[in-house]
Design a protein that fits this description.
heterodimer, A: 269 residues, alpha/beta, Rossmann fold, six-stranded mixed sheet, four-stranded antiparallel sheet, 38% helix, 22% strand, globular, B: 265 residues, five-stranded antiparallel sheet, 12 helices, 11 strands
């Protein structure tokens, strides 16, 4: 289990672009957290700090109250697995089975153990039938699922997913939701970046809204998509879910998901 | 006008075609949406309609005819396609040229390759960046852009070429709602100039407000082709692995709970 704390985190890219500006965030083990915000609001930069891919230019990143500045990225990678937005930056092996076994091997697991972890991860994302395929013979959406599997196979206490649903059809999104539910059930922490508000409202217990490198809102889907929060969402060019808009129009309070809207309407009779 | 008549396509090294009997006409000024489950053939259709398959990646058309503005394109060299059909790939990282030092140069690359005068190029680049609200990215290094910013720059590059036919494979996959809205407006404006557009998308909410027609692909074949409302309201869409627009989903959920679906309107 790894608790994550960000204290006054700031980051400026070498070309002078400020991506993060005083971010304070505390994430308990086992939490499911969605990070949302307009393009360029600092979401991807933020998650790259969680496993040391980027190092803060201001502030600190703590794992279980320990500053990670002194730890090598390789050590942090055993705690925080990140699935990148673009699967092609992650995939490199010639066979799917080698791709998913690579992570656990790098963490020092034996061959058989790594292969078993890889097979379980492929099953979790529904790619068992592609075990012997070349990753580049898979379509984009299945390559994205493969990238998720290769991080799942590392069995890290924290899993970060950067835009996991882009390019996925209805079944693919349902598959990603299943994977997240299973991780949460296993007590692992899931942090995801997404622009898909319905996916965010349905799949996460907590939503962090970012704008211009800062945290603008932090709460449950019901709080973040409540009508009173809409002006803040609009300030970072986000919109509430359709279900939330209908619920507000009908005076039903905050109904971030379709299921919640139907529930409240049914109770009203 | 771009027309595929009974076209099939087979990737190099594969025995079975990925697309079969594709009949698809894009009239001038028309925006046509393509939906379908993953692996249904949407991206392949985009490659075929832009001439990149087989022109660039090999494989073979397995029958049928392909014409642009009434002229058969069979066997034409790739550059004949590239000046007449623009294509935006699913993944902006594969499309950004990698040879430019700023977004402004990146967007200028297309118009310059069309042989445009420098002054016209600059004017077109400025207009394209402004249309998508990304003037502030002009001096940024393309390789340092976020995924969504990269996607906007790719679309700006295509707009700057003012194509008469444009094929887009999930143009808004990585965009925030505001970026998605701006791209929708830009595409609508491009169609008004007479361009024919083909857009493959999972976001049926976007297609709902943008397209006059939607075609549904399933295992490489067109299984539905009709007015947007009729195709996206069809209950069969879900069985094809396609998520309907939120208005349709919500109305259906209310109906199932014996509530008034009219509450969504």
């Amino acid at each position: 289990m790894t608790a994550i704390q960000l204290e006054g985190l700031g980051f400026v890219y070498p070309d002078g672009t400020r991506a993060l500006d005083g971010v304070d965030l505390s994430i308990e083990p086992g939490a499911s957290v969605a990070v949302i915000g307009q393009n360029g609001s600092g979401k991807s930069t933020l998650v790259r700090h969680l496993n040391g891919l980027l190092r803060p230019t201001e502030g600190r990143v703590l794992h279980d109250s320990e500053d990670v500045a002194g730890l090598r990225t390789a050590a942090l990678a055993a705690r925080v697995g990140i699935v990148f937005q673009n699967p092609d930056r992650q995939i490199f092996a010639g066979r799917v089975r080698d791709e998913v076994a690579f992570g656990p091997r790098m963490l020092g697991r034996g061959k058989a153990e790594a292969a078993a972890a890889g097979a379980a991860a492929l099953e979790a994302v529904g790619l068992t039938d592609a075990t012997d395929a070349n990753p580049y013979d898979l379509g984009y959406s299945r390559r994205k699922l493969l990238a998720i599997a290769s991080v799942l196979a590392m069995d890290t206490p924290v899993v970060v997913l950067d835009e996991p649903t882009t390019g996925q059809d209805a079944r693919g999104i349902a598959r990603v939701q299943q994977v997240i539910a299973q991780l949460v059930a296993d007590g692992r922490t899931v942090i995801a970046i997404s622009h898909d508000m319905r996916f965010v409202a349905e799949s996460f217990g907590r939503v962090v809204v970012m704008g211009s490198g800062r945290v603008l809102l932090d709460g449950s889907p019901a709080e973040v998509f409540a009508e009173s929060a809409w002006p803040v969402l609009a300030s970072t060019y986000l919109e509430p879910t359709h279900a939330a808009r209908v619920g507000a129009r009908l005076g039903l309070g905050s109904t971030p998901t379709e299921a919640r809207l139907v529930e409240v309407l049914s109770a009203r009779g | 006008m771009l027309r595929l008549a009974g076209v099939g396509y087979r990737y190099a090294g594969y025995a079975k075609p990925v697309l079969s009997d594709i009949d698809l006409t894009l009239a001038d000024g028309e925006i046509v949406g393509v939906v379908g489950a993953n692996e249904a053939g949407k991206s392949t259709l985009c490659l075929v309609a832009s001439g990149l398959a087989p022109g660039s990646i090999g494989g073979a058309l397995t029958g049928g005819g392909f014409s642009i503005d009434g002229e058969s394109m069979a066997g034409k060299p790739l550059h004949e396609f590239s000046t007449r059909v623009g294509i935006g790939f699913q993944n902006p990282a594969t499309q950004l040229s990698g040879v430019t030092g700023s977004v402004f140069e990146e967007v200028a690359l297309g118009p310059m390759n069309l042989g445009l005068h420098r002054r016209d190029t600059v004017e077109r680049v400025r207009a394209a960046l402004a249309t998508l609200g990304i003037e502030d990215l002009a001096e940024r290094e393309p390789r340092r852009l976020s995924g969504g910013q990269g996607q906007l720059v790719v679309i700006a590059s295509l707009l700057a070429m003012r194509p008469s036919h444009l094929v887009l494979d999930e143009p808004t996959a990585q965009l925030d709602p505001e970026g998605t809205r701006l791209v929708g407006e830009a595409l609508r404006a491009l169609a008004k100039t007479g361009a024919a557009l083909l857009i493959a998308e999972h976001k049926t909410d976007l297609l709902d407000g943008l397209c006059s027609r939607v075609v549904v692909l399933d295992r490489g074949r067109i299984v539905a082709d009709g007015p947007t409302g009729a195709v996206l309201d069809d209950p069969a869409l879900v069985e094809r692995g396609v998520d309907p627009p939120s208005r349709v989903r919500l109305a259906r959920a209310l109906r199932e709970a014996r509530l008034d679906p009219g509450l969504v309107a």
